[in-house]
Write a structure and sequence with these properties.
The chain folds into two domains: 5-50 and 132-194, no CATH class; 56-123, no CATH class. The protein is built from seven helices and eight strands. It has helices at 5-17, 28-45, 89-93, 144-148, 150-161, 166-169, 172-196, and strands at residues 52-54, 64-66, 71-78, 85-86, 104-108, 111-115, 125-130, 206-207. By secondary structure, it is α+β, with helices and mostly antiparallel strands. Helix content is 39%, strand content 16%.
């Protein structure tokens, strides 16, 4: 369990630099940089209900829908009927003259495009995996993912600390193995919830680099 943001920094310090945090030369500024790297790693890798949210107010213009600012990956996307399947943008462009019900989507810069094309003002429905707000002392208690999976955050920070601190590098393989194990369990837990709810078939999330 991690009680607070300052407790998080203390736990990282102990694992990198030993139990006596008062003797550590690691500054809070340095630790916060490591935490920032860890956050980006987690949101790239983790697909859980704790960082999943509905599309709100996203509409289509010119067959494009702008991605939300906190977007990381698609969970499920549709226009009120069956879920759309991901394709490469080039694949959709080759079929731009096709008509009928929309069945596919693709990344198009910082937007999504669809095929067959969708009318302007159509509302995008579904859910996506998001980046939660950058972790701070003020918002720590509101971050459901760190509350549920504190070890994920500990080991993500330790992995990101490996290039910079000898104390972390000495146990690098262990830290990486632990992070991968926890990350895989979190992702598998989400898949199991979907199966238990009757969603027995679900495509892998569609991530975009933006």
């Amino acid at each position: 369990m991690i009680a607070s943001y300052s407790d998080y920094l203390v736990q990282i310090t102990r694992l990198i630099d030993g139990d006596d945090v008062t003797a550590s030369e690691l500054s809070n500024g340095t630790l916060e940089q490591v935490v920032g790297l860890a956050e980006r790693k987690i949101y790239r890798d983790v697909r859980s209900r704790f960082n999943e949210k509905a599309f709100l107010g996203v509409t289509v213009t010119g067959n494009l829908a702008a991605l939300p600012a906190d977007f990381e990956a698609i969970s499920v996307i549709h226009f009120g009927k069956q879920a759309l399947t991901p394709k490469a943008e080039e694949w959709l462009r080759e079929r731009a003259n096709h008509s009928g019900e929309c069945r596919h989507f693709a990344a198009a810069g910082d937007a999504l495009t669809f095929g067959p094309s969708v009318a302007d003002n159509t509302v995008v429905q579904g859910r996506y995996f998001c980046r939660l707000p950058d972790l701070t002392a003020a918002n720590f208690a509101t971050n459901a993912l760190i509350a549920r999976e504190p070890d994920l955050w500990i080991y993500a920070a330790l992995v990101e600390a490996l290039p910079f601190f000898a104390g972390a590098a000495a146990q690098g393989q262990l830290f990486m193995q632990k992070y991968e194990q926890i990350k895989d369990r979190v992702n598998n837990d989400s898949a199991r919830v979907a199966t238990n709810a009757g969603r027995v078939s679900r495509s892998a999330s569609f991530g975009l680099v933006i």
